[in-house]
Structures are given as C-alpha cells and as structure tokens.
Write a structure and sequence with these properties.
By secondary structure, the protein is mostly helical. The chain is 82% helix and 3% strand. The strands form two sheets. It has a two-stranded antiparallel ribbon. The chain has a two-stranded antiparallel sheet with strand order 2-3. α6 runs antiparallel to α9.
Length: 308
C-alpha cells in the first residue's frame, strides 16, 4: 500500500511539474512582453530564480541545520545536470537558437564564476568573505542585466500569450508554486521508492535527488523550447547555474562556513568542462543543435560512469 501511495505521489509530482512549467513560461513570457523586457532577461532572472527554488531551499535549509556539507554537492551536481542533461534533452527535442549576448557574455560569465568557486574552495571551505564576494558579484550581474534590458527594449512577441500584467504575474506565481511543490512530491516519492527497493542512499543522492531538484529547470526548458521561446530555455539554465553559485552558495556561506571536500574538485572541474562544451557548441552558429545535445548526453553518461 505504501509503495502504491508513493507511485501516486510521484505521478502527481510530474503532473504538477508539467502544468506548472506550462503556466510559468506563459505567464513570465507575457509579463516580459507587456513590460518591454527581453525574454532573455526574464529567463536569466525571474525564471532562473524560480526554477532554482529547490536547490536554494535544500542548500540554505542544510546550512541553517548545520549540514552545510551537502550544499556544494547539491549545487555542483545540479549545475552539471542542468547543462549536460537538460539542455541536452531540450536541444534533441528541437534545436535551440542562442542569443548573441548569451554566447558572448552569459555563458563565459557562468564559466568564470564556476572557476571562481573551484579556486575559492581549494582551501577546503567557503567562509564569510567568499560569501560576501559571491553576493556582490551577483548584484553586479543583475545590474548589468537591467542596464542591457534598457538599452535593448525591442523583443519579438510572436507566439507569446497576450495576458494583462496582473494575470501574467498570477500565472507565473501559480506556475512557480506548482513547480516547487511538484518537485518536492517527486523527490520525496522517488527517494522513498528507492529505499523500498533497497537502492543505496549514495546512489539516490547522485541520481534521484540531483535530478529531482533540477526537474523544474528540465520541464521549464523543454516547454519553453517546444513553444519556440529558446531564449527562455537557454537563459533559464545559464541563469539558474549563475544563481546557484553566486546566490545560493554565497548566502549559505554567509550563514555558516560551507565545507568543500577534495572530491568536489573533480566535480567542479566537470562543471567547468560542461560550461566550456556549451560555449563551443553554441559559439559558431549561435545555435545548440541536436548533435550538440547528443554530445552533452553522452558526456553526462561518461561522467556518471566515472562517479559510480
């Protein structure tokens, strides 16, 4: 009976994620169009922060409870998954056009802050100073996005729902709530099922929980890609990775010193390699093709084999 309940909760979680992602993309796209804000900026900020809510909740709660050692694993693992699995799947479904500013600024910036995370963690922990630096860099990045949005107000609105701003905001909020709740149901149910079937907790952590906290990004990006809002699909992932490192790790480090185990050096190096791979796949044609997506999925499979 307990197994049946967990299966039903798992299905409910997936339904909430699908419906939530749908509402979230429609609502945020509509608000972006009405306020003359580029979809790219919405993807890099509101959508990215919203879909990073599970990572933020897990990491900050862990820090508050004195279990900060899971913060780095959660964030680095999710960032690798975001690029290699989520953009891999999204681009296999449909080739993703990438904005010029994303290729020239946002992806290199994401790569640079991942290198910064690795360098800061080489002494074994991230403390108050590192947390302050990360949050200041994040504030600077948000300022840059606002300035760029004012300089480039034009944005194509074809295919975007024409909701009023209040309705668009309502749908965005409903979508976000469904995404976060759906993610929680999915992770909790999948974890319980794994334990019922005797799968190790280490395996659960590396697969189900890492994927579970990245499910909002997965569903939001796939829905955005299928709706033709490629800037949200790519911007959501790049923005989520930037948000995860600068805000989530930064805030966690302000709360309590965050341990950076030696094992994470390899994982963070893989996160850097994934960011470089994304840049190389997009640099020439400003498009993430199906071939690029397949390379990303194969790369994650290889990484998964190595960590096991």
């Amino acid at each position: 009976m307990d197994i049946l309940l967990q299966v039903l909760l798992l299905v409910l979680g997936f339904v909430m994620l699908v419906k939530g992602a749908d509402r979230f993309v429609d609502g945020s796209s509509s608000v972006a169009a009405k306020l003359k804000i580029p979809q790219l900026v919405i993807g890099l900020t509101v959508v990215a922060m919203g879909t990073s809510a599970p990572e933020a909740a897990v990491s900050i709660t862990a820090a508050l409870k004195g279990s900060a050692e899971i913060t780095i694993g959660n964030i680095v693992g999710s960032n690798i998954l975001n690029i290699l699995i989520i953009l891999g799947i999204s681009s296999v479904i449909t080739a993703l056009a990438v904005a010029k500013s994303t290729v020239k600024v946002d992806i290199p910036f994401m790569t640079a802050i991942t290198v910064m995370l690795l360098v800061m963690g080489l002494d074994g922990k991230l403390g108050l100073i590192e947390g302050i630096i990360m949050l200041l860099v994040f504030a600077g990045y948000l300022t840059y996005l606002i300035i760029m949005a004012k300089k480039n107000p034009e944005e194509q609105t074809e295919g975007i729902k024409n909701y009023s701003v209040p309705v668009g905001l309502l749908f965005t909020a409903i979508g976000l709530a469904l995404i976060v709740l759906g993610s929680k149901f999915t992770v909790d149910a999948a974890t319980e099922l794994a334990r019922e079937f005797g799968i190790s907790e280490r395996f659960i952590g590396l697969t189900i929980v890492a994927l579970g906290t990245s499910l909002p990004e997965l569903f939001t990006s796939v829905v955005a890609a299928r709706k033709g809002n490629a800037d949200i699909a790519i911007g959501n992932i790049v923005g989520s990775n930037i948000f995860n490192i600068l805000f989530v790790v930064g805030l966690s480090a302000l709360i309590t010193p965050v341990p950076f185990a030696k094992e994470f050096i390899f994982d963070t190096a893989i996160a850097i390699a994934a960011a470089v791979l994304l840049f190389l796949c997009c640099f020439r044609d400003r498009k993430l093709s199906r071939a690029g997506g397949i390379i990303m999925l194969i790369s994650y499979a290889a990484y998964f084999v190595v960590i096991l």
